[in-house]
Amino acid sequence: MKNTVLTFAKAKQEKTKISMLTAYDYSTAKLINDAGINSILVGDSLGNVMLGYEDTVSVTMEDMIHHTAAVSRGAKDALVVADMPFMSYQASVYDAVVNAGRLMKEGRANAVKLEGGKEVCPQIKAIVDAGIPVCAHIGLTPQSVNALGGNRVQGKTADAAKQLLEDALAVQQAGAFAVVIEAVPAKLASLITDKLDIITIGIGAGNGCDGQVLVYQDMLGMFSDFTPKFVKRYANIGEQMTAAFRQYDEEVKSSAFPSDEHTYKIDEDIIEKLY
């Protein structure tokens, strides 16, 4: 059954958890979808794990549309949420609505996600008014890494904690159907979750949130450049891939691959006539 924004609302009412993972391509989206994950986030984290950028700031609308479309073709049941990249919504409400519309129309997303609190509420409201579901994102907002002074835990002071709670309530009021809470102390994230009527999706925010999201390369050990504290490694697929690549390299160079079982046959008479 297709997960929708109503699935999220029902989960909040019934106090059942929501699972979310990132994906950036068709094959991975199919695997995640078939595992029963509720939602797939096509995150601008693709800049790091797929394109090799140092941060997410360089990701473009074209990048997001391309990868979102691929994921949408593979995710039949999971709710596909597409990140709005840096400067696709900050400059104006008009830009926000147009670019959100592109992610829905060209990328075939089911919803969009944007970073920020009170300052982006006009954009959230306008996008929602255009008939596009919005997932908000507060706490550590990677697109603002330069303004934040790096990837730091947010909400650790009294003023900062109060600001996060106010931002959460504001994005809910603006019409967001869910909010991602990133790199926030667990007790604060749990308090925010209790205060909201919409789903909270935690990433480095403790298990008191209504759901969780991880970058799939992180949880499978496929991305070694940087591993946040909050990541649990469920498998070491990266090591298995490296071992398989090495074995392939060895077999090619020793002529062990391809063997007869991987080779097509032809009648010997035909070959002899060619000499």
Strand-residue proportion: 5-15%
Q: Could you name the CATH class of the largest domain?
A: Alpha Beta
> What would the CATH topology of the largest domain be?
TIM Barrel
Order of helices and strands: HEHEHHEHEHEHHEHEEHHH
Name of the CATH homologous superfamily of the largest domain:
Phosphoenolpyruvate-binding domains
pLDDT below 50 for ≥5 consecutive residues: which ranges?
none
Instruction: Kindly state the number of beta strands.
Output: 8
First and last CA, distance: 61 Å
Number of helices: 12
> What gyration radius follows from the Cα positions, in whole Å?
22 Å
What fraction, in percent, of the residue positions are helical? 40-55%
How many strands, which pairing sense, and closed or not: the largest β-sheet? 8 strands, parallel, barrel
Report the structural category.
alpha/beta
Q: In the CATH classification, which architecture of the largest domain applies?
A: Alpha-Beta Barrel
- How many domains? 2
Quaternary structure annotation: single chain
Give the strand line-up of the largest sheet: 1-2-3-4-5-6-7-8
Mean pLDDT: 95
Q: What best-fitting shape do the alpha-carbon axes yield? A: elongated
Structure description:
This protein is of the alpha/beta class. The chain has 2 domains: 5-236, TIM Barrel (Alpha-Beta Barrel); 241-274, no CATH class. The chain has 12 helices and 8 strands. It has an 8-stranded parallel β-barrel, surrounded by 7 helices. Helix 2 (26-34) links the parallel strand 1 and strand 2. Helix 5 crosses helix 6 and helix 8 (158-174) packs parallel to helix 9 (186-195). The protein is elongated, with a radius of gyration of 22 Å. The termini are far apart. The mean pLDDT is 95.
